[in-house]
Design a protein that fits this description.
This protein is α/β, with parallel strands linked by helices and about 750 residues long. About 30% of the residues lie in helices and about 20% in strands. The strands form eight sheets. A seven-stranded mixed β-barrel has the order 22-25-26-27-30-29-28. Strands 6-5-2-3-4-21 form a six-stranded mixed β-sheet, with helices on both faces. The protein has a five-stranded parallel β-sheet with strand order 16-15-14-17-18, covered by helices on one side. Strand 25, helix 22 and strand 26 form a beta-alpha-beta unit. The protein is globular, with a radius of gyration of 25 Å. The two termini are about 40 Å apart.
Length: about 750
């Protein structure tokens, strides 16, 4: 039986009447996205239609999920909120703090030793506040959620940008910062600007070497990393229904890389099969009874241009396998063009490592298809030219693929099986030789490939592909190898061709596991004591941020003018810094150390205007803070792209940054800045970015009149005494201005519970 089945039944009980009412109010057929959103309005029954991309709306998500790196700060904030128990079903998953180095057993043992303090903290907090706890080694949050908690037509938020993976089971699942999660865990409404809608019509059917991963790689190439911002992507068509549920999850997972709020698919037979295979027949039965409400209306899919803001059509029968990268997940290249592109761009053709698995691609189908290629290595007398590694998505997957012989098949080609954790996908990879920073090429089936993302080496070129393609390329060891047309030379000197991958959508003998790694919370956690050592370098209780004093910010200094792409990896790096995610003071020492200073094109080197000396960004920020001098950050387009990590907002707030002024924001990061009491502003005229000089002093001229819809005027006083007044736009509504006035959204929650 499913977790929280009564909650799911309640969602389904309400859905028909609410959707029917929404359809009446809107006055037209509805998309799946609209049905799910209108069924989750905070006020219950719909009473008005909402403008896409215009109106902020309060929602009531069904559940919350947190991974261990972000859960630390989220739960520290929840403790500050003063609630005795979470208001909605919530889970914590320990998957980010396990570094890949030797292999699963040794790596997990080392992680439990090194991060025992954090794991114990998360376990005790979960036990106290009624939160389900998934132990280290249980699996990656998104795979575990898909296997246990996701359900068609549901709505969830999670403190990780790839929460969107649950869209593969028909959810509206959205990545958020910890402060948003605290709102929902505290029993409050969750606010989201009503999204625009992008429809992706899939015709034809996948076959041969082409996989679901290639769909999102193609879409990323079309929309780019910011093309989905403010929108939900809804997939439909014969190609969608012909695809496996886990394949749909892969597509939704990597939808985070186009900036989309989330992605989703309508309920179909593949979802029903997956629910039943994962011991949730009760959910499938309940979904079957209201199936028409769990997908878009027929009229919508018949004439999508009438109902979506943008429509993309992809013929899966003609789709070619793709590789995306390096350094950005939207640089899409069909495999037939990769050799040409690599030579043109001087990308190293020799592949050093191939990695498969992660939350994106670790389904039974993924692994079985990759194993069918690995088996051909021995059968065709080949040798694998690149190193090869696997990160199973969950203990259920790992146990099942071991039982069915796939791990043995991979080990025979020299593969390393890492722990059921994120590992290299998030930079938790102690890769031998990475410290040499040699230029090299790797291929993986993960979702992100930013500079330094996998191994910390800025010269590692990472290319994203399907598990099948990654396996074939690892066998060949050649980035230019096209398995559809090219041959390999075996040990007998013969030319051989890899046969098309094959595999099963679901395990023929069912899923199996001895210990999934779940810890249920205490029925009454009131007596559970959560202690944090004040001398700890890993955990630190939070102190509230100071409220706004009601005055204009004046005399501020420019901390950094970031040049080009500035993701949350640049603002608050992961990798070795993950160990400080529960300690705001210590983690703040990585603030913006990866951002490029526009004035010297260096990272972590900015001018301290108090001394005239260049120093690390956190050091300069701390110097300004100690002197009582506010500072601001200036950035380029899509600032804050990538992870949902709210540390990228909390660190600037903690170190005295008052405002972030950019050309445009990624959705989650803009919200995170607002939640922490910062000013997230955009240039009314993007060309004004060029007017900002290194030694500027900044004065807000009309912040005292901060109101919704009214731009702010900011004076930049240059070193020579000249001035530029720049107009800055914002998207704050009355409630969000309240967060700024109070010092943070959490301050308001805590005040309400005082």
């Amino acid at each position: 039986m499913a977790f929280d089945i009564e909650m799911i039944k309640k969602v389904y009980e309400n859905m028909p009447s609410r959707v029917d009412k929404a359809r009446e109010i809107v006055g037209r057929p509805l998309t799946l996205t609209e049905k799910t959103l209108y069924n989750h309005l905070w006020d219950g029954m719909p009473t008005q239609a909402f403008g896409r991309g215009v109106e902020y709306v309060d929602f009531a998500p069904d559940r919350v999920a947190c991974q261990d790196a972000t859960a630390q700060m989220a739960l520290l904030q929840f403790m500050h909120a003063g609630k005795p128990k979470v208001a909605v079903p919530t889970t914590v998953h320990c998957d980010h703090l396990i570094q890949a180095k030797v292999g699963a057993e040794a790596d997990l043992k080392r992680a439990k030793s090194q991060s025992n303090e954090v794991f114990d903290f998360l376990s005790s907090v979960s036990n106290k506040y009624g939160i389900g706890f998934w132990k280290p080694g249980a699996g990656i949050i998104h795979q575990v959620v898909l296997e246990n908690y996701a359900f068609p037509g549901g709505m969830m938020i999670g403190t990780d940008s790839h929460t969107v993976n649950a869209g593969g089971l028909g959810m509206i699942a959205i990545g958020v910062g910890g402060a948003d999660a605290v709102d929902v865990m505290s029993g409050m409404a969750w606010e989201l600007k009503f999204p625009k809608l992008i429809g992706v019509k899939l015709t034809g059917k996948l076959s041969g070497w082409t996989a679901p991963k290639d769909v999102i790689l193609k879409v990323a190439g079309i929309l780019t990393v910011k093309g989905g911002t403010g929108a939900i992507v809804e997939y439909f068509g014969e190609g969608a229904t012909a695809m496996s549920c886990t394949g749909k999850g892969t597509i939704c997972n990597m939808g985070a890389e186009i900036g989309a709020t989330t992605s989703t698919f309508g309920y179909d037979d593949s979802m029903g099969r997956y629910l039943r295979a994962t011991n949730r027949a009760d959910v499938a039965d309940a979904a079957d009874k209201i199936a028409p409400y769990l997908t878009g209306d027929p009229e919508v899919y018949a004439e999508p241009e009438k109902y979506f803001d943008q429509v993309i059509e992809i013929n899966l029968s003609e789709l070619e396998p793709h590789l995306n990268g390096p350094f950005t997940p939207d640089l899409a290249t069909p495999i037939s063009k990769m050799k040409e592109a690599a030579i043109k761009n001087n990308w190293p053709l020799q592949i050093q490592v191939g990695l498969i698995g992660s939350c994106t691609n670790s389904s039974y189908e993924d692994i079985s298809r990759a194993a069918s290629l690995a088996k051909q290595v021995a059968d065709k007398k080949l040798k694998t030219k690149a190193k090869f590694a696997i990160n199973p998505g969950s203990e259920t997957i790992r146990y099942t693929i071991e039982r069915d012989g796939f791990i043995d098949t991979f080990e025979k080609i020299g593969a390393t099986v890492f722990a059921n954790a994120c590992g290299p996908c998030i930079g938790m990879w102690d890769r031998e030789g990475a410290e040499k920073e040699e230029r090299n090429t790797i291929v993986h089936s993960f979702n992100r490939n930013f500079s330094k993302r996998a191994d910390g080496n800025p010269n590692t070129l990472a290319f994203v592909g399907s598990p099948e393609l990654v396996t074939a390329l690892a066998i060949a060891g050649d980035l230019g190898f096209n398995p559809l047309t090219d041959t390999l030379i075996n040990e007998d000197g013969e030319e051989v061709r890899l046969e098309e991958p094959t595999g099963d959508e679901l395990p023929p003998n069912g899923f199996d596991v001895e210990d999934p790694g779940f810890q249920a919370p205490a029925h009454d956690g009131s007596t559970v004591v959560v202690s944090v050592n004040p001398e700890s370098e890993r955990l630190q209780l939070l102190a509230p941020f100071k409220p706004w004093d009601g005055q204009n910010i004046v005399g501020a200094k420019l901390l950094i003018k970031a040049f080009g792409k500035c993701t949350t990896d640049h603002i608050s790096m992961a990798g070795p810094w993950l160990r400080f995610r529960g300690h705001l003071d210590n983690i703040s020492n990585n603030m913006l150390i990866g951002a490029i200073n526009a004035f010297n094109q260096k990272t972590n080197s900015v001018k301290n205007q108090l001394t005239g000396v260049y120093d690390a960004v956190p050091a300069v920020a701390r110097a300004y803070k100690a002197a009582g001098v506010p500072s601001i950050v200036v950035g380029d387009h899509n600032y804050g792209e990538g992870s949902s990590r709210e540390h990228a907002a909390m660190e600037p707030r903690f170190l005295g940054v008052e405002a972030v002024l950019v050309k445009s924001f990624a959705r989650i990061h803009e919200t995170n800045l607002k939640k922490q009491g910062l000013l997230g502003l955009t240039f009314a005229n993007e060309a004004d970015y060029d007017k900002i000089q290194e030694n500027d002093t900044i004065n807000f001229l009309d912040l005292v009149d901060f109101t919704p819809g009214k731009p702010l005027s900011i004076e930049f006083v240059h070193e020579n005494g000249s001035k530029d007044v720049i107009v800055a736009n914002h998207t704050y509504n009355e409630g969000q201005i309240g967060w700024f006035i109070a010092g943070s959204a959490l301050n308001l929650i805590a005040a309400d519970n005082a």
